[in-house]
Specification:
The protein has 232 residues and is mainly beta. Helix content is 13%, strand content 34%. The chain contains five helices and 18 strands. The chain has helices spanning 35-40, 99-102, 118-126, 132-135, 181-188; strands at residues 12-14, 21-23, 27-31, 51-55, 60-62, 68-71, 80-82, 84-90, 106-113, 116-117, 141-143, 147-148, 159-164, 167-173, 199-201, 209-211, 216-221, 226-231. Strands 4-3-15-8-9-12 form a six-stranded mixed sheet, covered by helices on one side. A hairpin with a 6-residue loop joins strand 1 and strand 2. The relative contact order is 0.26. The mean pLDDT is 95.
Length: 232
Amino acid sequence: MSFVFAPAAPVAVPIAGSQDRFPVRRVYCVGRNYAAHAREMGFDPDREPPFFFCKPADAVVPVAEGSTLSLPYPPETANLHYEIELVAAIGKGGADISVDEALQHVYGYAVGLDMTRRDLQMKMREAGRPWELGKAFDQSAPIGPLHPAQTVKDIEKAGIWLQVNGADKQRSDIGKLIWSIAETIAYLSKYFRLEAGDLIYTGTPEGVGPVVRGDRMAGGVDGLGALSVQMV
Protein backbone atom coordinates (compact mmCIF):
# COMPACT_ATOMS: atom_id res chain seq x y z
CA MET A 1 0.00 0.00 0.00
CA SER A 2 1.18 3.53 -0.72
CA PHE A 3 -0.19 6.93 0.27
CA VAL A 4 -1.00 9.66 -2.24
CA PHE A 5 1.13 11.97 -0.07
CA ALA A 6 3.30 11.43 3.00
CA PRO A 7 1.16 11.30 6.16
CA ALA A 8 1.94 13.87 8.82
CA ALA A 9 4.09 12.77 11.71
CA PRO A 10 2.12 12.41 14.96
CA VAL A 11 2.23 15.25 17.45
CA ALA A 12 4.39 14.06 20.33
CA VAL A 13 4.60 15.61 23.80
CA PRO A 14 7.94 15.40 25.65
CA ILE A 15 8.16 13.37 28.85
CA ALA A 16 9.88 15.08 31.78
CA GLY A 17 13.25 13.48 32.53
CA SER A 18 13.13 11.18 29.50
CA GLN A 19 13.96 11.05 25.82
CA ASP A 20 10.61 9.36 25.18
CA ARG A 21 7.65 11.14 23.62
CA PHE A 22 3.89 10.73 24.09
CA PRO A 23 2.06 10.51 20.72
CA VAL A 24 -1.23 12.39 20.72
CA ARG A 25 -4.36 10.65 19.46
CA ARG A 26 -7.30 12.87 20.45
CA VAL A 27 -7.82 16.02 22.53
CA TYR A 28 -10.89 16.33 24.75
CA CYS A 29 -11.63 19.50 26.71
CA VAL A 30 -14.02 19.92 29.64
CA GLY A 31 -16.13 23.07 29.60
CA ARG A 32 -16.82 25.16 32.71
CA ASN A 33 -15.37 22.71 35.25
CA TYR A 34 -14.60 25.30 37.95
CA ALA A 35 -17.62 26.91 39.64
CA ALA A 36 -16.20 30.44 39.70
CA HIS A 37 -15.29 30.28 36.00
CA ALA A 38 -18.77 28.99 35.14
CA ARG A 39 -20.25 31.96 36.96
CA GLU A 40 -17.97 34.48 35.25
CA MET A 41 -19.18 33.05 31.92
CA GLY A 42 -22.80 33.52 32.98
CA PHE A 43 -23.78 29.97 33.99
CA ASP A 44 -24.92 28.19 37.15
CA PRO A 45 -22.37 25.41 37.83
CA ASP A 46 -24.71 23.54 40.16
CA ARG A 47 -27.14 22.59 37.39
CA GLU A 48 -24.90 21.13 34.68
CA PRO A 49 -23.31 17.72 34.19
CA PRO A 50 -19.88 17.92 32.50
CA PHE A 51 -19.78 18.69 28.81
CA PHE A 52 -16.95 18.32 26.34
CA PHE A 53 -15.58 19.73 23.12
CA CYS A 54 -12.63 18.57 21.05
CA LYS A 55 -9.57 20.05 19.43
CA PRO A 56 -7.66 18.35 16.61
CA ALA A 57 -4.48 16.59 17.64
CA ASP A 58 -2.40 18.95 15.53
CA ALA A 59 -3.68 21.93 17.56
CA VAL A 60 -1.35 20.68 20.31
CA VAL A 61 1.95 22.58 20.50
CA PRO A 62 4.53 20.88 22.74
CA VAL A 63 6.74 23.28 24.70
CA ALA A 64 10.04 21.94 26.04
CA GLU A 65 10.87 22.50 29.69
CA GLY A 66 12.61 25.83 30.23
CA SER A 67 11.73 27.21 26.78
CA THR A 68 9.26 29.89 25.70
CA LEU A 69 6.86 29.26 22.83
CA SER A 70 6.41 32.06 20.29
CA LEU A 71 2.70 31.78 19.55
CA PRO A 72 1.28 33.67 16.54
CA TYR A 73 -1.87 35.68 17.22
CA PRO A 74 -4.57 33.78 15.29
CA PRO A 75 -6.59 35.29 12.44
CA GLU A 76 -10.20 36.46 12.50
CA THR A 77 -10.34 37.43 16.19
CA ALA A 78 -10.01 40.57 18.26
CA ASN A 79 -10.49 38.83 21.61
CA LEU A 80 -8.04 35.97 22.19
CA HIS A 81 -8.28 34.50 25.71
CA TYR A 82 -5.96 32.34 27.80
CA GLU A 83 -7.28 29.41 29.85
CA ILE A 84 -4.72 27.59 32.01
CA GLU A 85 -5.52 23.92 32.59
CA LEU A 86 -4.32 20.67 34.09
CA VAL A 87 -4.02 18.06 31.32
CA ALA A 88 -4.46 14.34 32.01
CA ALA A 89 -2.86 12.01 29.47
CA ILE A 90 -4.44 8.59 28.96
CA GLY A 91 -2.04 5.67 28.81
CA LYS A 92 -4.46 2.73 28.88
CA GLY A 93 -7.65 2.46 26.86
CA GLY A 94 -11.12 1.65 28.08
CA ALA A 95 -14.83 2.37 27.84
CA ASP A 96 -17.41 2.86 30.59
CA ILE A 97 -14.60 3.19 33.11
CA SER A 98 -15.58 3.33 36.77
CA VAL A 99 -14.59 6.30 38.93
CA ASP A 100 -12.63 3.97 41.22
CA GLU A 101 -10.53 2.67 38.30
CA ALA A 102 -10.26 5.89 36.29
CA LEU A 103 -6.87 7.08 37.54
CA GLN A 104 -5.34 3.71 36.59
CA HIS A 105 -5.82 4.82 32.98
CA VAL A 106 -3.74 8.00 33.41
CA TYR A 107 -0.20 7.94 32.06
CA GLY A 108 0.71 11.37 33.34
CA TYR A 109 -0.12 15.04 33.79
CA ALA A 110 0.95 18.31 32.18
CA VAL A 111 0.25 22.03 32.15
CA GLY A 112 -1.77 23.18 29.16
CA LEU A 113 -3.36 26.27 27.64
CA ASP A 114 -6.75 26.20 25.95
CA MET A 115 -6.43 29.31 23.81
CA THR A 116 -9.85 30.62 22.80
CA ARG A 117 -11.07 33.06 20.16
CA ARG A 118 -13.68 34.30 22.62
CA ASP A 119 -15.50 36.57 20.23
CA LEU A 120 -16.01 33.73 17.76
CA GLN A 121 -16.97 31.29 20.52
CA MET A 122 -19.61 33.68 21.84
CA LYS A 123 -20.94 34.32 18.34
CA MET A 124 -21.29 30.58 17.72
CA ARG A 125 -22.82 30.00 21.14
CA GLU A 126 -25.44 32.68 20.66
CA ALA A 127 -26.37 31.17 17.29
CA GLY A 128 -26.59 27.66 18.76
CA ARG A 129 -23.70 26.47 16.58
CA PRO A 130 -20.61 24.36 17.37
CA TRP A 131 -17.57 26.04 18.93
CA GLU A 132 -14.86 24.87 16.53
CA LEU A 133 -14.11 28.36 15.17
CA GLY A 134 -13.49 29.60 18.70
CA LYS A 135 -11.69 26.59 20.12
CA ALA A 136 -10.22 24.25 17.49
CA PHE A 137 -7.94 26.57 15.53
CA ASP A 138 -4.25 26.03 14.73
CA GLN A 139 -1.84 25.99 17.70
CA SER A 140 -4.69 26.50 20.19
CA ALA A 141 -3.42 23.93 22.70
CA PRO A 142 0.12 24.60 23.95
CA ILE A 143 1.31 21.98 26.45
CA GLY A 144 4.34 21.48 28.66
CA PRO A 145 6.16 18.19 29.32
CA LEU A 146 4.21 15.24 30.67
CA HIS A 147 5.07 14.03 34.15
CA PRO A 148 4.37 10.31 34.69
CA ALA A 149 1.57 9.83 37.19
CA GLN A 150 3.70 7.82 39.61
CA THR A 151 6.05 10.79 40.01
CA VAL A 152 3.29 13.32 40.79
CA LYS A 153 2.18 13.86 44.39
CA ASP A 154 -1.21 15.19 45.52
CA ILE A 155 -2.23 16.40 42.06
CA GLU A 156 -5.87 16.65 43.17
CA LYS A 157 -4.88 19.37 45.66
CA ALA A 158 -2.27 21.16 43.54
CA GLY A 159 -2.32 24.89 42.92
CA ILE A 160 -2.93 26.16 39.38
CA TRP A 161 -2.03 29.66 38.23
CA LEU A 162 -1.38 31.95 35.28
CA GLN A 163 0.31 35.34 34.96
CA VAL A 164 0.33 37.76 32.04
CA ASN A 165 3.36 40.06 31.91
CA GLY A 166 4.10 39.14 35.53
CA ALA A 167 0.64 40.01 36.88
CA ASP A 168 -1.58 37.34 38.44
CA LYS A 169 -4.66 36.55 36.35
CA GLN A 170 -5.71 33.04 37.37
CA ARG A 171 -4.97 31.36 40.71
CA SER A 172 -6.88 28.42 42.16
CA ASP A 173 -6.35 24.75 42.97
CA ILE A 174 -7.30 21.46 41.37
CA GLY A 175 -9.44 20.57 44.37
CA LYS A 176 -11.97 23.14 43.14
CA LEU A 177 -12.81 21.14 40.02
CA ILE A 178 -16.56 20.55 39.88
CA TRP A 179 -15.90 17.11 38.38
CA SER A 180 -12.67 15.54 39.64
CA ILE A 181 -10.08 14.04 37.31
CA ALA A 182 -11.41 10.54 37.97
CA GLU A 183 -15.06 11.58 37.56
CA THR A 184 -14.25 13.38 34.31
CA ILE A 185 -12.52 10.31 32.84
CA ALA A 186 -15.36 8.02 33.93
CA TYR A 187 -18.05 10.30 32.51
CA LEU A 188 -16.24 10.86 29.20
CA SER A 189 -15.64 7.14 28.76
CA LYS A 190 -19.40 6.53 28.67
CA TYR A 191 -19.53 8.37 25.34
CA PHE A 192 -16.12 7.63 23.79
CA ARG A 193 -13.78 4.70 24.10
CA LEU A 194 -10.64 6.30 25.47
CA GLU A 195 -7.31 5.12 24.09
CA ALA A 196 -3.65 5.57 24.87
CA GLY A 197 -2.59 8.93 23.43
CA ASP A 198 -5.72 10.84 24.40
CA LEU A 199 -5.32 14.16 26.22
CA ILE A 200 -8.01 15.58 28.50
CA TYR A 201 -7.85 19.30 29.24
CA THR A 202 -9.72 19.30 32.55
CA GLY A 203 -11.03 22.88 32.69
CA THR A 204 -9.87 26.35 33.69
CA PRO A 205 -10.44 28.40 36.85
CA GLU A 206 -11.80 31.92 36.96
CA GLY A 207 -9.84 34.93 35.72
CA VAL A 208 -9.76 34.25 31.99
CA GLY A 209 -9.05 37.26 29.84
CA PRO A 210 -7.51 38.61 26.64
CA VAL A 211 -3.93 38.76 25.44
CA VAL A 212 -2.45 40.74 22.56
CA ARG A 213 0.77 40.57 20.56
CA GLY A 214 3.75 41.12 22.81
CA ASP A 215 2.11 39.68 25.94
CA ARG A 216 3.93 36.94 27.79
CA MET A 217 2.01 34.24 29.63
CA ALA A 218 3.49 32.02 32.31
CA GLY A 219 1.32 29.41 33.96
CA GLY A 220 1.71 26.25 35.93
CA VAL A 221 0.40 23.53 38.19
CA ASP A 222 2.26 22.74 41.38
CA GLY A 223 4.57 19.80 40.80
CA LEU A 224 4.40 20.03 37.01
CA GLY A 225 6.54 23.08 36.35
CA ALA A 226 5.57 26.13 34.32
CA LEU A 227 4.56 26.81 30.73
CA SER A 228 5.84 29.99 29.08
CA VAL A 229 4.24 31.50 25.95
CA GLN A 230 4.98 34.77 24.17
CA MET A 231 2.33 36.16 21.81
CA VAL A 232 3.76 37.40 18.50
